[in-house]
UniProtKB/TrEMBL annotation:
Residues 11-202 form the Lon N-terminal domain. This is Lon N-terminal domain-containing protein. InterPro entries: Lon_prtase_N (IPR003111), Lon_prtase_N_sf (IPR046336), PUA-like_sf (IPR015947). It comes from Hasllibacter halocynthiae. SMART domains: LON.
Length: 212
């Protein structure tokens, strides 16, 4: 369910390498560290129930956060007998990290800016002229090369956004490649980036610098 009205300026942030959440997509997470259990408890007490997913990376000052992440609303959770949680985050909107908030919370909180990502909070995005046949053909070669399996009938029927975003989240790309998919400004550019990553993998990769 999309949020209406203003989004908060400060949100809890879950830094997790390789985890990609996109607007209107769903990300399952296993929460067990005490600090993130506290984060979940606090998020559930707010009306928005938001948690921001951001990838960390190595920077000049050590481990830093990428500037762009995506916030998800907790839309489902179940508790195990030993106090752990399986939760589902439903992507709401991307954001830019402005600064980390100092405080006594055991988890990270950041001041964020939602400007520039208004499209994320509207309805599903479509791509005019999307060539599903060519896309699925490329995908088939990739899945065969990587020995991956999928439900092809579901892929053939899925809307463009669900298809592209789900594959962006699920395919085993490198963290920086996942970040490139997250930062793609439109569905068309994300699909083009996805195709480029697949073609790069099929070509066997190279020793060149990773895509930015």
């Amino acid at each position: 369910m999309p949020l209406t009205g203003d989004l908060p300026d400060t949100i809890p942030v879950f830094p997790l390498t390789g985890a990609l959440l996109l607007p209107r997509a769903r990300l399952p997470l296993h929460i067990f560290e005490p600090r993130y259990l506290a984060m979940l408890d606090d998020a559930l007490k707010t009306p928005e129930r938001l948690i921001g997913m951001v990838q960390p990376h190595d920077g000049p000052k050590g481990t830093e956060l990428h500037r762009i992440g995506c916030a998800g609303r907790v839309t489902g959770f179940s508790e195990t007998e030993d106090g752990r949680y399986m939760i589902t985050l439903s992507g709401i909107s991307r954001f830019r990290v402005r600064e980390e908030v100092e405080g006594f919370a055991p988890y990270m909180r950041c001041v964020v800016d939602w400007t520039g990502f208004e499209r994320d909070r509207r309805g599903a995005e479509a791509e005019e002229g999307f060539d599903r046949g060519a896309f699925l053909g490329l995908l088939g070669r990739y899945f065969e090369a990587e020995e991956l399996r999928t439900d092809w009938d579901s892929l053939k029927e899925a809307e463009e956004e669900l298809l592209v975003n789900s594959l962006s989240m699920l395919c085993p790309f490198e963290p920086e490649e996942k970040q490139a998919l997250l930062e793609a400004p439109s569905l068309a550019t994300r699909r083009e980036t996805l195709e480029a990553l697949i073609e790069f993998t099929l070509a066997g990769g190279s020793d060149e610098e990773p895509m930015q």
